[in-house]
TrEMBL record:
It is an enzyme of class 1 (oxidoreductase). Pathway: Amino-acid biosynthesis; L-arginine biosynthesis; N(2)-acetyl-L-ornithine from L-glutamate: step 3/4. SUPFAM superfamilies: Glyceraldehyde-3-phosphate dehydrogenase-like, C-terminal domain, NAD(P)-binding Rossmann-fold domains. HAMAP family: ArgC_type1. Its EC number is 1.2.1.38. This is N-acetyl-gamma-glutamyl-phosphate reductase. The active site is at C151. Its main location: cytoplasm. Residues 4-136 form the Semialdehyde dehydrogenase NAD-binding domain.
C-alpha cells in the first residue's frame, strides 16, 4: 500500500531529516513539502543533499495544501501546529515534531512555554516502559495524532525509566548533564551561531532548572513508574553538528549490584531494535549513533558515591526527531515499525 505524505517545515533541519529518511520508505510517497519564508524555493536549493527529490518546490504551509494526504509530518516552530491541525480531517495521521501537544498537565505547559496550552496527543516514544510493564507502543496503534518527544527528553527518559520503574534508584536527587549539538536549536538559530563562537567552546544554557524538557522528562518518568521525581537537567552546547550525550545519575538502592542493573535494562530493552545496551565498560558515543535511529545506553555503579550512572547517546535529528516521528507513524498505520529507519550510523 502507498500512503501519500506531506512534510510541513520541510526547509528546516527536522524537515530535512524527515525527507532524507522518508526517501527510502517503501510505503510512503512524499507528494508535498511546505515552508514559510522559503516557500516558492526548490527543495533542493534549500537542502542540496536531498538529491532524490528532483524539482519538488516548497509550498506555503496552509491547511488547504496539507489536506488530502494520508500522513502529515509537522516540523514547525512551537505554537504553529494548533490551528493548522484543527483544520485537517480527523482521519489524517498527523505527527507533530514540536512541543505543542506533548504535555499532559496544563500547569507544566504554562510554567515553561509561552501561549495557550493546546492539549495532549499520543506521545511518540514507542520504547517508553509504562508502570504496568507495557510499552508506549501499544498506545500508538490506534491514534491519528502523535506528539514527537523532545530530543533531550528522549535521551534522558530512555536512560532512567527502567531503573526508576524497578525501584533501584531514588526519586529525589536525579541529575542529568547533557552535551548537545547546535542543530537541536533548529536551522534558523544555528545559522546565526558563528564558528568563532561555537568552535573551541562548551556553553551551558538553561542550566539552572529552566529548560522546558524538564517537565516532559518528569512526566515520562511518572508514566513509567507512578512516581514523581525531583530532577535537575543541565544542557551544554558543544561543537558537534548533531548528537546528544546525556549522563544521568541517581542514588542507588541498598544491595543493588551491576548484575541486577543489567537485568532491569535487559528486561526493558532486550528486544528493542533501536536501543543498544552497551557491554560493561563500553561507552556510548555520539559519533556511533549519528545518522541512525539508535539510542545507545551504558550503565555503571559509582560505589563510593552510591550512585547509578547511566550514559545515553542519540542523534537529535534521528531518534530525537525524524526517526521517532517515522517510527511512531509506522506503528499507527500498522506497517513494519522499522521501515526507513537506519540501524547503522555514519562514520567518521
Ligand atoms: N532540531 C532538533 O533536533 C529537534 C527539533 N524538534 C522540533 O521540531 C520542530 C522543527 O525544528 P527544526 O527543524 O529544528 O527548526 P528549523 O528552524 O530548522 O525549521 C523550522 C521550519 O519551520 C518553518 N517556519 C518558520 N516559521 C514559521 C511559521 N511562522 N509558520 C510556519 N512555518 C514556519 C521554517 O520555514 P522557512 O525556512 O521557510 O522559514 C522551517 O521549515 C520544532 O518544533 C522543534 O522544537 C524536536 C526535537 C529535536
Ligand atoms: C541546542 C539546543 O538548543 N537544543 C534544543 C533541543 C530542542 C528539542 O529537542 O526539541 P524541542 O524544541 O522540540 O523541545 C534545546 O535544548 O532546547
Amino acid at each position: 500500500m502507498t500512503f501519500s505524505v506531506a512534510v510541513a517545515g520541510a526547509s528546516g533541519y527536522g524537515g530535512g531529516e524527515l525527507l532524507r529518511l522518508l526517501a527510502t520508505h517503501p510505503e510512503f510517497e512524499v507528494r508535498t513539502v511546505t515552508a514559510h519564508s522559503q516557500a516558492g524555493e526548490r527543495l533542493r536549493s534549500v537542502h542540496p543533499h536531498l538529491a532524490s527529490y528532483g524539482d519538488l518546490v516548497l509550498e506555503q504551509t496552509t491547511p488547504e495544501v496539507l489536506a488530502g494526504h494520508d500522513v502529515v509530518f509537522l516540523a514547525l516552530p512551537h505554537g504553529k501546529s494548533g490551528a493548522l491541525t484543527e483544520a485537517l480531517p480527523a482521519d489524517t495521521l498527523v505527527i507533530d515534531a514540536g512541543a505543542d501537544h506533548r504535555l499532559e498537565r496544563e500547569q507544566d505547559w504554562t510554567d515553561y512555554y509561552p501561549g495557550d496550552w493546546a492539549g495532549t496527543w499520543t506521545y511518540g516514544m514507542p520504547e517508553l516502559i509504562l508502570e504496568d510493564g507495557g510499552k508506549q507502543r501499544r498506545n500508538l496503534t490506534d491514534t491519528r495524532r502523535i506528539a514527537v518527544p523532545g530530543c533531550n527528553a528522549t535521551a534522558v527518559t530512555l536512560a532512567l525509566a527502567p531503573a526508576l520503574r524497578a525501584g533501584i534508584i531514588g526519586t529525589d536527587d536525579i541529575s542529568t548533564v547533557l552535551a548537545v549539538g547546535p542543530s537541536g536549536a533548529g536551522k534558523k538559530a544555528s545559522v546565526s551561531m558563528l564558528a568563532s563562537e561555537l568552535l573551541g567552546n562548551a556553553a551551558p544554557y538553561n542550566a539552572f532548572g529552566g529548560h522546558r524538557h524538564n517537565p516532559e522528562i518528569r512526566q515520562n518518568l511518572r508514566n513509567a513508574s507512578g512516581k514523581d521525581v525531583r530532577l535537575s537537567f543541565s544542557p551544554v552546547l558543544v561543537p558537534m553538528a548533531r548528537g546528544i550525550l546525556a549522563t544521568s545519575t541517581a542514588s542507588i538502592a541498598e544491595g543493588v549490584d551491576l548484575a541486577k542493573v543489567r537485568e532491569v535494562f535487559e528486561d526493558a530493552y532486550g528486544d528493542e531494535t533501536f536501543i543498544e545496551l552497551m557491554e560493561d565498560g563500553a561507552y556510548p558515543r555520539t559519533a556511533d549513533v549519528n545518522g541512525s535511529n539508535r539510542t545507545q545506553i551504558a550503565f555503571g555503579i559509582d560505589e563510593r558515591a552510591g550512585r547509578l550512572i547511566v550514559i545515553s547517546a542519540l542523534d537529535n535529528l534521528g531518534k530525537g526527531t525524524a526517526g521517532a516521528a517515522i517510527q511512531s507513524a509506522n506503528i499507527a498505520l500498522g506497517i513494519e515499525e522499522s521501515h526507513s529507519l537506519p540501524i547503522n550510523g555514519v562514520a567518521p
